[in-house]
Amino acid sequence: MNAKQKMRHILDTLAEMFPDAHCELHHSNPFELTIAVLLSAQCTDETVNKVTVNLFQKYRRPEDYLTVPLEELEQDIRRIGLFRSKASNIQKLCRILIDKYEGEVPSRHEQLTELPGVGRKTANVVVSNAFGVPAIAVDTHVERVSKRLGMAKLDDTVLEVEKKLMKLVPREEWTLTHHRLIFFGRYHCKAQNPQCPICPLLDLCKEGKQRMKPGGQTKTKIKATKPKKANEG
Fold first, then answer.
1. Cα–Cα distance between 200 and 18 in angstroms, integer?
2. Structural domains of the chain, with CATH
3. DSSP for 86-142?
4. CA distances, 220 to each of 102, 114, 147 (Å)
5. Which of the following is catalytic: 45, 76, 86, 121?
6. What pLDDT was estimated at residue 215?
7. In the annotation, is 121 catalytic?
8. Is 219 among the catalytic positions?
9. Element (H or E) spanning 178, and its range?
């Protein structure tokens, strides 16, 4: 198989495994999604959803986040990792939305990445899920799976992984592929104890083949991307 054929095989397999893959962050509008993705940096979607169920009841508009002291907002999200810096970024972001965008989340990628706490990954999630613009956001699951299945090199940066996926995956499938790669990494090809014995893509995974040998432990090491700061979501 050439690279395109290999990618098609992977995409079709993921489609069979996770036909209903979707964004698991609870939200009802672009603003809530932006806040949720900002909070999700170095934190699980499950924890974010537990926090936002009350957060989004209390704060419905950008103006609402600016009516309370920073310390109060910090306490509202204190179960989230890096909650202090994230609370600060939320208030700064809300001020910019009010002053520059009439309280609305902008739909263009370059506008989103100028907001505090919104990096390339967050912007990709927002434009694709809130505004229907095809994008591939590379989180820890997408990065891990892409490297294990040989879609990217082990020492590729997150941006390099994104560019390679954009080249291999048809544009109209970018967003859905992003979700399916996340589901595959979150529920099947986990960082620890991946389900190699029942994996339909084992033949493409050098690490999986190594794990399946007697002795089991892989010698392949994926170079982890350095953790981002809270303002680089």
1. 13
2. 1-221 (1.10.340.30)
3. HHHHHHHHHHHHHHHHTT----SHHHHTTSTT--HHHHHHHHHHHH--------HHH
4. 50, 37, 11
5. 121
6. 67
7. yes
8. no
9. helix 174-187
Selected catalytic residue, list 45, 76, 139, 156: 139
pLDDT in tens, 96-129: 999 999 999 999 999 999 999 999 999 999 999 9
CB 23 within 8 A of CB 125: yes
Give the span between the Cα atoms of 60 and 203, in whole angstroms: 48
* C-alpha–C-alpha distance, residues 20 and 176, integer Å: 9
Residues of the chain with pLDDT > 70, as a percent, come to 92
pLDDT digits (tens, 9 = 90+) for 58-111: 999 999 999 999 999 999 999 999 999 999 999 999 999 999 999 999 999 999
196 is in an annotated binding site: yes
Distance CA 116, CA 233 (A): 9
Q: Could you tell me if 86 and 74 are in contact, meaning their C-beta atoms sit under 8 angstroms apart?
A: no
At 218 the pLDDT is 46
Q: What is the pLDDT of residues 208-223, one digit of tens each?
A: 999 898 866 544 444 4
Q: Inter-axis angle of helices 174-187 and 140-148, to 10 degrees? A: 90
CA–CA distance, 136 with 144 (Å, rounded to integer)? 14
**What local confidence, expressed as pLDDT, does residue 194 receive?**
95
Cβ-Cβ contacts under 8 Å for 178 (sequence gap 6 or more): 124, 128, 135, 136, 137, 142
